[in-house]
Amino acid sequence: MEASRVIHAIYNDDDVLMSAVKKVRAEKHHIEEIYTPFPVHGLDKAMGLEGTRIAICAFLYGLVGLTVAITMMNFIMIEDWPQNIGGKPSFSYIENMPAFVPIMFELTVFFAAHLMVITFYLRSRMWPFKKAENPDPRTTDDHFLMEIGVHGNESALENLLKETGAVEIKLVDKAH
Amino acid sequence: MYTFSSKLKIFSIVLIILGAVGVGIGFSTSHKSFEEVETLLAEESHHGGGHEEVDSHEATSHNAHAEEASHATHDVHSEVSAQGEADEHTKHIEHVQHQIANRPWAALYVAAFFFMMISLGCLAFYAIQIASQAGWSPVLFRVMEGITAYLLPGAIIVLIIAVASGTIGHYNLFIWMDPEVVAHDKLIQGKSGWLNIPGFAIRGIIFIAGWSLYRYFARKFSVAQDTAEDKSNFKKSFRIAAGFLVFFIYSESMMSWDWIMSVDPHWFSTLFGWYVFASMFVSGITAIALVTLYLKTRGYLEFVNANHLHDVAKFMFAISIFWTYLWFSQFMLIWYSNIPEEVTYFVSRFNDYKLPFLGMVVLNFVFPLLMLMNADYKRMPWFVVMTGLVILFGHYIDIFNMIMPATVGDRWFIGIPEIGSILLFAGLFILVVFTALTKAPLLAKGYPLIKESEEFHY
After folding, report:
1. Composition bias, kind Basic and acidic residues: at what positions (chain B) (predicted)?
2. What is the pLDDT of residue B249?
3. Phi, psi dihedrals of residue B268, rounded to the nearest 5°
4. Nearest CB to B332: which of A55, A87, A98?
5. Is the torsion defined by CA of B430, B436, B438, B441 positive or negative?
């Protein structure tokens, strides 16, 4: 349930931002979004965001890569055309396994890395020619912006934000 | 200050006594007469599979080359007469007799080396932490200093066993120490400039002296820094750590040629030093984790938290994979090119040591890989302890695989001599390490990075 009107509170210090986040959360206001120019250590914990599951994805993608490598080489080298190449034993997969390990390793890493990156792009909705969703260009340089939904409590919220050290407070209508 | 609990002290002394009894049994049952071995072999071949065993004995023996050479001359010079067969029989029995006699020596040597290598790996880790000025680990420095206290006695014991096997023993570990073998072996003759007992002993003394001197001064400066007014001790310990690491990587490499690779004097591998290093490094780090957790459960390390454990477990995980990388690189290069003069090393291990040889890859790679991949598991003490015990067992098997095929061939077993030796040195290790831990406060409070370490948060 996204609010149609939001407050943009701008900060110019990440420590001030962190304490503001804790205060706003303590007052049970819902923080819609925070824009920062760089990763602020511990901000996700302060906001109460869930941990990422991308590492689990990467592990599973790695297993896929390993399976692809094994299936591919078993079919090509052992089943389809088991030639004698330099005396290497191509009677079964396990007998010639050491020669396949470099490929198994690389494909595992390849799948894990690339699919994880693609997952990241999809989940964070990033692609070329995507319209930037930046409410204030200064947040890519040296300012921090906290966006809070307004549900008829503007003045109380504004006072609270002023107390937390916001340098600028704006009431914004989200165009629909 | 840590006080050595009397329970643990009694436990370690019991281990030493039990181990000594086991080692004694091992030595007293290994002297078989010619006739005893003859009946033993007759019984074995009666049970089937005897002939195959006979073949593999010869292929795996440490003087395989010498024997093969003599076989060849037999074939050329004489039709296989009754006389020749009798010679073969005698030779075979003498060979097995020697292998049986080697077993307690090799068991003792493997266990002695294993515990020595834990503290040497720990010393290297300690020096790296100081030289790199790591901010997370200083709270563990006293634990590391305690573990490295075993290095001097442990390394001296290893060297004594090695030299004794060639002087008071019957060349039970290193065949190049046997003048009879060297006289008939062109390959060893060519290496005798390096492989001779005085050289071996002198190099060993230099290695041990270098390591122990670093350990002595690092510990001295570390304790002195606790009460010092300035940071001069810290600076000195930084400088000697950097110097030691240079000395260490040379001496460790040569030590691995001398103390391990030379049990197979016909074989050589260029990355062997690194491989042994990876093994000792991961064992040392695992020992740090285990000792730390033990002390923490006793309430002596309240400044150590899950974040420190997480970092140590990360090292266990990463160096386990590094070990596997070197193990596989060595194996795969030799397997791939399959040059007879170097591949015999793996042929004998594959034929007679299949379970330990492949089992250690599971213990040292697959198990830690899956157990320690998850960040949450790395923060759980019982999880790290379980994985750590498996890693240590795996690296014992690793050393076992390096020494045993060259000394006892296919007559290996993990029985009374092996377990006795492990208990003996485990007891000694516990006794020395925990005694050293009582000598100084468990927090190196004068170290400049100690505050950062205490507040370390991952």
Report:
1. 44-78
2. 95
3. -150, 155
4. A98
5. negative
Q: Which amino acid is at A27?
A: E
Q: Which two tokens stand for residue B153?
A: 């006695």
Kindly identify which residue of chain A lies nearest to residue B335, measuring between CA atoms: A98
Predicted complex ipTM: 0.90
d(CA B408, CA B97): 10
Question: How far B332 CA lies from chain A's nearest CA (Å)?
Answer: 6
Could you say which DSSP state residue B29 is in?
A: T
Condensed to tens digits (0 to 9), the pLDDT of residues B333-392 reads 999 999 998 999 999 999 999 999 999 999 999 999 999 999 999 999 999 999 999 999
Give, in order, the Cα–Cα distances in Å from B244 to each of B145, B318, B381: 15, 23, 32
**Is the confidence at residue B72, as pLDDT, over 70?**
no
What residues have CB less than 8 Å from B442, skipping those under 6 apart? B1, B2, B142, B143, B295, B300, B301
Nearest-CA residue of chain B relative to A96?
Answer: B336
Three-class secondary structure of residue A35 per DSSP:
strand
Both tokens of residue B409?
């061939």
Q: What DSSP character marks residue B78?
A: S
**Which chain A residues contact residue B335 at CB under 8 A?**
98
For residues B447 and B203, what is the distance between their CA atoms, to the nearest angstrom?
34
Contacts of A98 in chain B (CB under 8 A): 328, 331-332, 335-336
Instruction: Name the pTM for this structure.
Output: 0.90
Lookup: tokens for B383: 């999880």
Q: How many helices (H) and strands (E) does chain A have?
A: 5, 4
Please choose, from the candidates B241, B248, B235, B161, the residue with its C-alpha nearest in 3D space to the C-alpha of residue B209: B248
Q: Following CA atoms B377, B379, B385, B387 in sequence, which dihedral angle do they give, to the nearest 10 degrees?
A: 30
Task: Give the distance from residue A60's alpha carbon to the nearest chain B alpha carbon, in angstroms.
Answer: 13
Q: Where along chain B do its domains lie?
A: 6-31+97-450
Per-residue pLDDT reduced to its tens digit, B19-62? 999 999 999 988 888 888 888 888 888 765 444 444 444 444 44
E-assigned strand segments in chain A: 5-11, 31-35, 144-149, 168-173
Strands of the A31-35 sheet, one edge to the other: A31-35, A144-149, A5-11, A168-173
Nearest-CA neighbor of B161 among B170, B151, B149, B173? B173
